[in-house]
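S., here's the first fold you wanted:
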Amino acid sequence: MKYVIWGAGLRGGRLFRHLKNDDVIAFVDKSVEKVGSHIYGKEIISLDEYLRDKRYEKTMLVIAHTFEQGAVDELQRLGVRRYMKLSDCPGEFQEENTRPYISSYVKANIDRNKSYGILGNTVYSLEVYSWLA
């Protein structure tokens, strides 16, 4: 899965550290001062550019800023349905420091002879899926 993180601040940075660098395509931010610059080597773009540019069509927009409900309301008003909220992820994905052992723990406790279902539609569930693949 490829992601665009909405929020080029603390929460967006926290999420970024849990994902593979190549899986994050860009950051979205409403701050005019941030748009056009880079964070973690990724471009910061406006929401308008995200919606307009075909490069982002198949990415998942992850809302990772403090005003989450306002972002949800705006996306729904614009007819955007392809998004997730950081707040739907477990606390480990919202903490300042990453816990690298999470993926190791999941991988170590999987029985390759069994089938598993992953409940939920969050960044975390998509990452768990990639760990199992």
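And the second, which I think is the more interesting of the pair:
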Amino acid sequence: MPKILIIEDEAAIRRVLKKIISEENDAYNVEEAEDGLQGIEMIMKTDYDLVFCDIKMPEMTGIEVLNA
């Protein structure tokens, strides 16, 4: 089962992205992180097949997440 992580600080955007991805294929395991720090922690614990990451976020930007 493909694992997908959405890193996005806006709850409404996370919810819509998760809904769209899940409706595309119910075999996708979609998880969410509300900021870059939480996203990094999740990436360290789990191997994801795909990560969607917002660029402008508080605490840690998407660019900082990519460089970590």
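Why I say that: The longest strand covers residues 3-7. The chain has a mean pLDDT of 95.

Talk tomorrow,
H.
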